[in-house]
Amino acid sequence: MRKLLKSFRTEINPTEGQKVRIRKTIGTCRFIYNFYLAHNKELHESGKKFM
After folding, report:
1. Fewer Cβ neighbours under 10 Å: the N or C end of the chain?
2. Which pTM does this prediction carry?
3. Going along 1-51, which residue ranges are E strands?
4. Does residue 32 form part of some domain?
5. How far is CA 1 from CA 4, 23, 33, 39, in A?
6. How many domains does the chain have?
7. Residue 7 belongs to a domain
8. Displacement of CA 20 from its chain's centroid (Å)
9. What CA–CA distance (Å, rounded) separates 19 from 30?
10. Which domain holds residue 41?
C-alpha cells in the first residue's frame, strides 16, 4: 500500500509586533530543545537513564 503525501502552502503576513513575538517564541523553543539535548547527553554519558 502506497502512502499519499499531501501538503498545503500558506502565506502569512504578520505585523511587526507579531514578527517579534514569533522570533522570540522560536528562540525560546530552540533554547529549551538545546538545553534538554545537552542534559540528556550528559545523562547518557554518565550511564544514567535519559529521556
Report:
1. N
2. 0.65
3. none
4. yes
5. 10, 41, 35, 40
6. 1
7. no
8. 17
9. 16
10. 15-46
Task: Measure the CA–CA gap between 7 and 1, rounded to whole angstroms.
Answer: 19
Q: What is the pLDDT of residue 38?
A: 96
CB-based contact 40:50 (threshold 8 Å): yes
Instruction: Using a pLDDT cut of 90, give the percent of the chain over it.
Output: 78
CB 44 within 8 A of CB 51: no
Question: Rounded to whole angstroms, how far apart are CA atoms 45 and 12?
Answer: 43
Distance from C-alpha of 39 to C-alpha of 48, rounded to nearest angstrom: 11
What type of residue is 11?
Answer: E
Per-residue pLDDT reduced to its tens digit, 5-24: 899 999 999 999 999 999 99
Q: What is the DSSP secondary structure assignment for residue 3, as one 8-state letter?
A: P
